[in-house]
Design brief:
Bound molecules: flavin-adenine dinucleotide
Order of helices and strands: EHEEHEEEEHEEEEEHEEEEHHEEEEHHHH
Strand content: 25-35%
Number of helices: 10
Radius of gyration: 21 Å
CATH superfamily of the largest domain: FAD/NAD(P)-binding domain
Shape: globular
CATH topology of the largest domain: FAD/NAD(P)-binding domain
Structural class: alpha+beta
CATH architecture of the largest domain: 3-Layer(bba) Sandwich
Number of strands: 20
Distance between the termini: 27 Å
Helix content: 25-40%
Length: 385
């Protein structure tokens, strides 16, 4: 694979990681990104877009050489995770039970993205095309070429699309998707708390949708409130002080005082590309699949795509590109579908009018709490270990 020419479209977390790992293996990488990457400054408030990174995702970022450079003032490890159905037994996970220092880490997306970009800028074999978009793709037999919006033309052996849920590359290649909007949206609310950094994340399932608490570094946190779109719109229209009152009245009880810093609503759409590659072009991350974020799996699945493709390109370098991409699809598409379906089951059972389904889910949560070794196995699977 070394010395191949690769174009990566989209420099979000998935695209920037792909570009970095391939460049570190000696390939010539061109990264095209339409928006500038914004680095959070030491005293900036926390951005609304935060993600929970699994232990496996952390390991990938460690291997890429960026984890140790992340400022500790913006990174939060959590050791405990609790989830429950309203008024039922809690299912509790603890990192000590599996001998790990943390179950996962919460950080702003832009923090991870900017750390990856910093590393990319140090490499001679990486060319960055910022504020550029793809206009046309010619997916040829021997090479792929594309035209940018500034009329520059580029060529490569492989084009990797990491341009997010509305992937322009996917559309230019006319790769179809199965997709639907969930009848829920999600309000992200950053808060400052009057207690020190927490090491627990929790989620309560309700008929209207889950309510979750994500700890952030120092005395910061993010509340995640799923509800019907019109309710999210109404909550979003409140002032920060009014929203605090609504949280006190309607959100699960918080054991500390807080002030609302920022808020933003996000629509939830499930998408799955009907195929992950075509000729010399391949889809990764949200360009290939978007998932209900209720278990925080989206970017973790994207990082697994990256690891899988990079490993195949490295270890099966003698195979034709088409065979490598076919293997990538056969490894990642079913795995992503399983996770999407699991999230849909949770979503549908909580919304279901059928009491039987809800009783079943309560039963599953309770049985899981008392399942000992099995519970730890499930936890390790979710952590990607
Ligand atoms: C509310 C919410 C909460 C979430 N929480 C979690 C969580 O806790 N844990 C988790 O694992 N996941 C979570 N996710 C999912 C996670 O945010 C996504 O899976 C992840 O951001 C996908 O990364 P990506 O790089 O594939 O795509 P994106 O982050 O969408 O990045 C795509 C990049 O491509 C660029 N781009 C777009 N179009 C073009 C173009 N035409 N040309 C060039 N560049 C282009 C964009 O500017 C962007 O930089 C959450 C999602 C939502 C909506």
């Amino acid at each position: 694979m070394q010395n191949r020419e690769v174009i990566v479209v989209g420099g979000g977390m998935v695209g920037a990681l792909t570009a970095l790992l391939l460049a570190q293996l000696g390939n010539k990488v061109k990264l095209i990104e339409k928006s500038p990457c914004i680095r959070p400054m030491e005293n900036d408030g926390f951005d609304l877009r935060v993600s929970a990174f699994s232990a496996q995702s952390k390991n990938i970022l460690v291997a890429a050489g960026i984890w140790d450079n992340l400022p500790k003032s913006r990174l939060c490890a959590y050791q405990r995770l609790q989830t429950w159905e309203k008024s039922s037994e809690k299912l509790c996970f603890d990192s000590q039970a599996v001998g790990l220092e943390a179950l996962g880490y919460i950080a702003e997306n832009r923090l991870i993205q900017s750390a990856l970009w910093d590393k990319l800028k140090q490499l001679d074999n990486v060319c960055l095309y910022e504020k550029r978009q793809v206009k046309k793709i010619v997916n040829g037999y021997a090479e792929v070429s594309l035209l940018l919006d500034d009329e520059q033309s580029l060529r490569a052996d492989l084009l990797i699309a990491c341009d997010g849920g509305n992937s322009a590359v996917r559309q230019l290649l006319q790769i179809g998707i199965t997709a639907w909007d969930y009848r829920q949206q999600c309000l992200l609310i950053t808060i400052k708390t009057d207690i020190a950094q927490q090491n627990i994340t929790w989620q309560e399932f309700r008929e209207s949708g889950p309510c979750a608490f994500l700890p952030l570094a120092n005395n910061n946190a993010c509340l995640v409130w799923y509800h019907k779109p019109q309710k999210i719109k109404q909550l979003q229209s409140l002032s920060n002080e009014q929203l605090k009152l609504a949280i006190l009245q309607e959100f699960p009880a918080l054991s500390f005082d807080f002030s609302v810093q920022d808020k933003g609503g996000f629509p939830l759409t499930r998408r799955h590309a009907q195929r992950y590659y075509q000729g010399r072009c391949v889809l990764l991350g949200d360009a290939a699949h978007t998932i209900n974020p209720l278990a925080g799996q989206g970017v973790n699945l994207g990082f697994k795509d990256v690891q899988c493709l990079v490993d195949l390109l490295q270890h099966c370098a003698d195979l034709p590109i088409n065979n490598i991409l076919q293997r990538y699809q056969s490894m990642r598409k079913p795995a992503n579908l399983v996770m999407q379906t699991a999230m849909d089951l949770f979503y549908k059972s909580s919304k279901s009018e059928l009491p039987l389904l809800r009783i079943l889910r309560k039963g599953v949560l309770s049985a899981a709490q008392h399942s000992g070794g099995l519970k730890n196995k499930v936890m390790k699977y979710a952590m990607g270990l």
